[in-house]
Amino acid sequence: MGQGTSQLDKHQEALRLLTPSENLKLEEISASMAQKNGGKAITNSAFQKYVGRVLEEPFASRLFKAIAMLDGEQATSEITKDKLAIGVVHMVKGTSEYRSYFMLRLATDNKSATTDDLIHLIQCLILALEKIFKQKHQHEYWSSLSHAMSDQRLAHFLMQDILTDKENDIPVTNGDSNLTFTEQHLETLLSRSALCIRILDEVFRNCFPIVDVDDSDFFSSIAPLVPHFELGKVLWSRIQSLLDTTSIIFLNNYIPVELRTKWRFVFATAVHGAGFSGLVREITKKGPTVLVLRDKHGHVFGGFASHSWQLHHAFYGDDQSFLFQLKPNISIYHPSGYNTNFMYLNHGQQTMPNGLVSTSRLP
Questions:
Q1: CA distance linking residue 147 with residue 11, whole number of Å
Q2: pTM for the whole structure
């Protein structure tokens, strides 16, 4: 990653990726952490204190070490402000090569990471996201019912996602759970999971909030990880949501981009009753919907309907619809392509099947 170039040249090259206002914010962050040598050096403890609002230990220390070791250099107890600037720029605006470098260094102190290392890291990144959203009051309505293991379930799903050959829909591990991953492996694996990349980038950009809003990733601005929630006139204290922040991050990643910014409440049995006729009345002609259910065994599952529900004697919809599971495991099931039986809703008919159906491929 750029070996053979002086640190001064690397620093100047990195700063050229920033706007003037981003440069100013980066300088302010560096100055706030600098403690020694006339304000030019930053210690591990000062670094930990600053990023600790997002990352817990040992990940804050590992990130400090990763910056110190950029381009094959030795780990040190202090880093210069210039070295910090280089590291921050590569985190928030760097290439896939740098993204995989930092992910490996966060996952382990060794030269390669195990599957368990990566699962633990992903879980901690999700926890960091929840901390970020809580600070920004972005998820207060999503977490009224907490799933104790939901972060771990999403971490396992994402690990399975990056270890799957999407073209052939087969796992690349062949059942081997004792794999190790180098930086080069991670660069390839991360390319398989857009959600994993989004989570990593979101954490980095909140550790070091220097990116201008107008200059930030366009995709993030139109498709946030957690959508804005419209309560409407519903008394929220009457409802125990089946969706927590982790579930929302997962589901919002798979619905069409244009629907990821804003969600609104439509139906809950606690408000509208458990009758099927009430469900039909509230969900028809409301646009695309996410339907979430919990059975008597505690399993949580549902589906995304890409079109408005409507009473009809035939199937309708398109292949953007899908089914999902949130508990006991997180999974997603896309249409098989064998037919066009995506959505069906009928009620009160004597000669036609009644009920609500959304079909996708199941294992």
A1: 44
A2: 0.83
